[in-house]
Every structure is written in C-alpha cells, then in structure tokens.
Amino acid sequence: MNELKQLEAQRDDEIEIDLGEIFHLLLNKLWVIILCFIVGGVIGFSGTKLFLTPKYSASSMIYILTKTTSVTSLADIQMGSQLTADFEILATSRPVIEEVIEKLKLKYSYDELVAMIQTDNQSDTRILRFTVIDENAKEAKAIANELAEVTAERVAYVMSSDKPKIVEEAVVPKKASSPNTMKNTIMGALAVAFLAIGIIVIKYLVNDTVQNEDDIKKYLGLHMLAAIPTEKRESI
Q: Where is the Polysaccharide chain length determinant N-terminal domain (predicted)?
C-alpha cells in the first residue's frame, strides 16, 4: 500500500511539473502568442471590411387593437394578444408582400423579401414591430413603412374592422447593423492566438527527445557527471 501511495504521489508530482513546464513554455513563447493575436485581429478586421457587405435595419410599428376593440376587460386584452399572432402571419402573407413589391417597384421575389423581414411583438404589449434588413439604408426604411401600411390595410380588409394605427414610422438608419467589426476583430485575434497556443502545447507534448540534463534526471533517473557544451568559443 505504501509503495502504491508513493507511486501515485510521484505521478501527481510529475503532472504538476508538466503543467508548470507548459506554463513556462507559454511564458517564453508569449511574444509569439501576442504576434498571432495581432495578426488574427488584422485578419478579422480586414475580412470584415473587404468581404462582408454592410446591412442596415429599419423598423416600423403598428398597434394591433382598433377602435372596435376595447381594452376594458381581460377577454379583450387576451384577444389582443391572440391578434398579434394573426398579424404576424398576415404581414408575411403573399398578398401583402407582393403588394409591397409592386408599390415600391422592387426587384426582389416573394421569398427574397420575406427573408429580409423580421416581425417582433414585445411581451405584455399589443404593438407589432416590423424590421427590414437591407444593404440599402433608404430602401430598408421605405420597405418597413410600406409593409406597415399594407399590413394594416390587409388586416382591416380580412377582419372587417377599422384599420390599425401606425405607432411609429421607420427612419433611414445612419449606421450599419451588421457586420460587427469590433466583434469579428476580437474573435479573429482570439482564434489565431488560441491556435498558436494549441500548436505550441502539442509540439511540446509529442516531443519525447531528451533536451537537457534535467530531462535525463527526470525520465531516466540518472545523474549527470559532466556536460559538454556544443557552442563554439572564440579563441583569444
């Protein structure tokens, strides 16, 4: 039992020594890791600027309850919440989307325009928001406003009710919503830095050659009597 405990203790010591060596190895290669971090950041930043097209998002909102629907009872409020789901489906229905395409004279197909539209209903509200993501900021604003108008008209026709009110019209976005240059730069920097760390550690782990007198003592259990330097000294 004592021998087994000694072997386990020795194994634990070796693991601790290995981890310590890896730490010192990474510390010695810190300049390589920092360089790779910088290179990765440059790649992420350049790739974002050169290969990713900026996209803009514009949003409009409509209130789903009309004059014919009161909010004086719980039943009316629950009905308003149910109407939200109906409005979301109507907003991306083919008649609505095709009318938006026709009025704005867009070159998108039905599927292409639907893919650019996001509908969102914030919890505990009866307001439906339409968000359009487009490469053209002015076009995103125009589509969002026209979508809200056509959806409201379609809802009034289908439900035989008053036309829902538009709460907020979209404006031309000043900044692109995507891509996130800062995020991509940081992700690129971290990815290349971690790749460098992985390569350094793997090269260390697979290298089983004896490097110095400490390795001889550690792996062979032998003590060095003398060491012959391999560096050439200049003659005086």
A: 16-104
Q: How many independent structural domains does the chain possess?
A: 2
1 within domain boundaries: no
Please compute the mean of the pLDDT values over residues 140-160 and round it to a whole number. 89
Show Cβ contacts of residue 204 under 8 Å, excluding neighbours closer than 6 positions: 21, 22, 25
- The answer to which of 8-17, 34-43, 97-106, 213-222 has the lowest mean pLDDT is 8-17
Is position 99 within any domain? yes
| Whether residue 154 is found in the same domain as residue 198 | no
* Section 119-139 average pLDDT: 85
Q: Which domain holds residue 210?
A: 16-51+184-220
Q: Is residue 128 over pLDDT 90?
A: no
- Domain with 139 in it: what CATH number? 3.30.70
Task: Provide the CA 21 distance to its chain's centre, in angstroms.
Answer: 35
Residue given tokens 């867009």 in the structure block: 106
- Is the pTM for the entire model greater than 0.70? no
At 116, the pLDDT band (50, 70, 90 cuts) reads: very high
Tokens found for residue 64 = 């789903």
